[in-house]
Amino acid sequence: MSGPDASLTVSVVICVYTEDRWEDILAAVASVRAQSHPARETLLIVDHNEALRERLLKEYKEREDVRVLANAGPRGLSAGRNTGIAASRGEVIAFLDDDAVAERDWLRHFAEGYADPAVIAVGGRTVPIWASGRRPVWFPEEFDWVVGCTYRGLPPGRVRVRNVLGGNASFRREAFDAAGGFATGIGRDGDKRPLGCEETELCIRLSRARPDAVLLIDDRAVIHHRVPEVREHFAYFRTRAYAEGLSKALVARSVGADKGLESERRYATRVLPAGVLRGLRDAVLARPGGAGRAGAIVAGVLTAAGGYAVGSVRARRGGASFSVAPVEGGAHG
Question: pTM for this structure?
Fold first, then answer.
C-alpha cells in the first residue's frame, strides 16, 4: 500500500459533555493540532451543556481550525457524532475520545489506509492510561474494551476487520452517504449505563450497503486513553460487561446474530479460554493476579451473557430499540 495522500482532508470530531474533563479536552485538541498530517479542522460537539459550550467558545475564539457546536440531536454520543459529521468539511471524518490524546502520526497512518480507494474506514490502537499509574493486577487484557481500549485478541498490524472501535476511528464521508449515521438509542449517554456497540452496528450496516468496502485497523495509529480511578474497580467492570451484552442483543436483533456476533464467537471460543489458561498458569507459578484475571474473564463472560439474554427478551418485546437517520449536510472539498 502506498504512502499517505498529503492532499487528503480530515475533519476530527471530539464529542464532549462535562466540564469535569476540561483539561482532557484541551489536551485532546492540542494533540490533533500537532499532527504530522494536519487536520483540516477539529469540531468539538457539546452534548447539551451550555456552560461548557460557552467556555469552549471563549477558549478557542482565536482558532479558526477549532469549531465548537452544540449537539443538534438527542442527548448521547451517537447524535453528537452525527452532528459533527453533518458540520464537517473533510473528505474523511475521524473520531477521538474527549479523554484521549493522539500520537503525532495518528492521522498520517489513517491517510495511508485511504490510499486504497476500496478502503472506507480505518481505525487505530487505543492504549490505556491507568489513573493509578498501572494496570490492576486482576484486570485481563482480553477485556480492555471495558475501558474503551484495544484488547488482546485483535490481530496486529494493518488488517481487515468487521468493525472499527469508535473512540479511535475514521470513515470516508461517502460511508455516511451510503449507510446513514450512528444509530441513536444504542450508544453512550453521558454518565448513564455505559452502553456501546454503535460503531459495530454502523460498520455492519455499511458493509451491507457497500459489500465491496474494506474496513481496516492499523495498530500504528495510536491514541492514549485515560482510565479514571472508578473504572479500575470490579464493580465498573461488571456493569460495563452487562451493558455490552444489552447492546450486543440490540445489534444482533437489527442485523442478525450471524453478523452481529461473528467476531464475538472467535473471541469467546479462542481468545478468552486462552486467557483463562494463562491466568491459571500464572496462579500456579505464583505470579500476581493470575487467579484474579482468570476469574474476571469467567465473570465477564457470564455477566455479558446475562445482559445479552435480558437485552434479547427486551428487543423481542419491543422494549428496546434504536433508530438510524440520514446525516444531512457536510460541505466538503
Answer: 0.90
